[in-house]
Amino acid sequence: GVGESNALGGLAMIACARHAWDDAIMYSLEAMARSREVGDTWTQARALISLGEAEIGAGDPVSGRRNLNEAVTLSLAARVLPVAIDAWLRLAALDVQARQFDETLLRLVALAQRHSVTSYYAAERASGLWASLAAHVNAGMLASAEHAASTIAPDQLESLLRAYVERRPVALSHVEPPAHVLPPASGLHVPETGEILSPREVEVLRLLIAGASNQIIANTLVISIYTAKHHVASILQKLGAATRTQAALHGRALGLEPLTTR
Length: 262
What we know:
262 residues
């Protein structure tokens, strides 16, 4: 029920805070499954936020951004604006770290600092982002963004959030993203699709090459069946494969060897 999905969502948030990324992914996926069963949109959106944050922490920023985008879209459709802002702030953090920001981002961060439109913790997060922006953006642009934010109505805020998740911001200045937001070196680039498999996804793909089922993958990597299914689906998408067999063959072509199961 709702109580169970909320509890799982809470565990996902705790796991994220502890950087226990595999646990966070597992709890997030289970919370999403329960929340869908009972139609609890709020918990589903919160679980998507935790899932996105965990994927980014585990070295898969592409999937993380995708799930955070979905959390914003779902929250806006359900008219749960504070949750939409919370999800968007995590997207904004990625762009601020990479110094990929535009006037829309500046205005939204300025607005998100106000407790009247978001939660206390989200406002604190926004204030931290604003301080980071101050190190890279001149004072005049920040002042202009604050003034523009003071004139934004709630319906305009929703429109800005929708527009933001539908496109990457055009950088005011381009700087290469810092290393900690890039996939680790042990990830695997897929030339055909331009995607990058995270280290965990590489392990799962090697198990697929060995013919492992989702349950065997879960047992071998000591993760839940939900997490195993999620990794397999992400791998298929990134490889552009329709079946597990196609994914395994693609993995072989990329030079991967099967991983011993248990």
